[in-house]
Every structure is written in C-alpha cells, then in structure tokens.
Write a structure and sequence with these properties.
The model has no long low-confidence stretch (mean pLDDT about 90). The chain has one domain. Strands 1-2-6 form a 3-stranded mixed sheet, with no helix packed on it. The protein is built from 3 helices and 6 strands; from the N terminus they run αββββααββ. With about 110 residues, it is an alpha+beta fold.
Amino acid sequence: MFEEINHVLGDQLLISYRVCECGCEVYYVHDEGDFFPEEVAVSSSGEPFEDACDDIYTTLKDAINDWCEKMNIEQGEHTDEEMMNFINEYEYDDDDTYFYIRQFTFE
C-alpha cells in the first residue's frame, strides 16, 4: 500500500519498514536509509531464556553468542549457519522452551 501511495505521489517518499510475521515465517526489511540494519530476529521462551521474548539482534553472531552463553555451549569450529540450524533444531527438556533465529531478507 505504501508503495502504491508513493507511486501516486511521483515517488517523492522514502519508505522503510520491517515485517516480522513469526507464525508465517516472514522476516523482511525494505530500508531506504539505515533505519533497520539488524540481521536477525529471535523468538524465545522458557528456561534459560526470558518467557515469550522477541528480540532483534544486530548480527547473527550476536544471537548465536547469546544462545551459547545461556546454554553454556561453545560454537567451536561450527560456522554461523551451522550453529543457527543447530539452535533452531535443538530439543530442550521442556516442550515449551525454544530459541528460534530468523534471518531478515533485505530488499
């Protein structure tokens, strides 16, 4: 809708936005400035994480480091991509505990 309004106005506006639709797995950024430089969103709940917390992290590495610190697990030689997949698939003792890292797609 914003883009259509901008077209009607002769593309005079700079429009930036970030979309997080957690249940739909939509993490999208359209940034015409430097308003949304963060790379990832994290949804987490349960111990040792804060309950029902949604956070934005500047880098994937920051999110991984936070998880590793809270879980007392080291990244070792694993790449950030390998760690993100490991963290997203990690099975906790409690079914209500999770820590999902989602990378934003930038336009």
